[in-house]
Description:
CATH topology: Sodium/glucose cotransporter
Number of helices: 19
Order of helices and strands: HHHHHHHHHHHHHHHHHHH
Radius of gyration: 22 Å
CATH architecture: Up-down Bundle
Low-confidence stretches: 159-167, 459-463, 497-503
CATH class: Mainly Alpha
Amino acid sequence: MQTGTIISLAVYFIAMLGIGVYAWLKSTDDSEGYLLGGRQLPPAVAALSAGASDMSGWLLLGLPGALYVTGLVEAWIGIGLFVGAFANWILVAPRLRQQTEELDDSLTIPEFLSRRFPTQAIPLRVISAVIIVVFFSVYTAAGLVGGGKLFETSFAGLFGTLPQSMGATDYTFGIWITAGVVLAYTMIGGFLAVSLTDFVQGCIMVVALILMPIVATMGEGGIGPMTNALRAIDPTFLNLTAGLTFIGFLSAVTWGLGYFGQPHIIVRFMAINSVKQVATARNIGMSWMGVALIGSIGVGIAGRAFIERNGIPMEDPETIFIMLADLLFHPLITGFLLAALLAAIMSTISSQLLVASSSLTEDFYRLFFRKEASEREMVNVGRICVLIVAVVSGVIALDPESEVLQLVSNAWAGFGAAFGPLILMSLMWKRMTGAGAVAGLVTGAAVVIIWIVNEWNSSFLGGEGIYEIIPGFAAAMAAIVIVSLLGKAPERKQPLDEPLHAE
């Protein structure tokens, strides 16, 4: 690792910490400020924060790695995600922004659900919080695995020279350094720090994802020679439907269903400064996402051509972005590109840590231990909870054989199936009951866990696996509808009946 690269990364780390200090001075006096930034995020910040917290290390590691190995057919995951994200902005964003404020200024998703269905308030808050903490521990671990792989690939031998009794490897140090920097600005500055750093990180990510595939393609002499090289490897490599079965297609595009239930993404909708600004934020966010996904696909495709034509050994396809950054660019630019990877990783980790922390503080600590806790006490407890979740996730990530995309897919499905149908129906169906909400929440999470444990996602009925979000989402939706219709219709007037003003 050359000095220029280290300098670029150091500047990036210092900038993130500086934003954390700024946010600490601006918005950490009370719980609403620490957990939602006072509901004052401008549209651009909310949009890029939602996008950056969504597009974690899998955007620069997992997705390019899948495309590197299999070919363009893996792009269906990105297509499904784009459609799902757009539907999320249309169906969930304006309604959630309006209803969480009107339902006694709810600060967390479990708190919103408990006030939407007061007869099942405690079960909803507790079960929601447990699901959030469990799946976010796995999801955050996926991000830390990405940090470990970055340091293992780019800082080879730098940390492994320390005593082995300290567990000193490039991979483990990468995990804890990544976690340490994220912890610093998240614990200090709360939601505003996370959102502002997400905005900066989102800008860095999209520049890197435009730059990398262009340079890699030019290094192959242009699109024509690159295409010929890929077809020589596999004639179907650039075929969007090569080897695609119906179940494979369904499993790929239904990643988009997960958006409706991702707490770290939809909480951004709650923080936009007004419902009227949702449409502006949506347009900005979807434009950013489209460019980012195209760039990620380009990294995997162009990277495979470059590696094959130059005979470079590639042990881990998920490190193709890192390899290209080291091989194609000046050390200062390499540092910027690696900062983009860290941005993708850290933006998601910080969002997940804060949401998990908010559930522990608001839905456990305040609910069961200190109902009269002061705002300052709640902020400090939230900081402690951020630390606890980060340590647990770090331990999960210590396995160097972990795959980023696999960890992300499991957690994504868990949230999507447990919360997706619940959030959609609670915002849009007046007839839904508290018992139906509990049934959907438990059913969605249970089906996903059973599917993963039994590995039915890889051996469905003895054949090709089906992504666990499909049975989980369908079962949760059925449970909500059936249990709600079997019970007494709830008495509800506002705010579900009020018109929206998002346009």
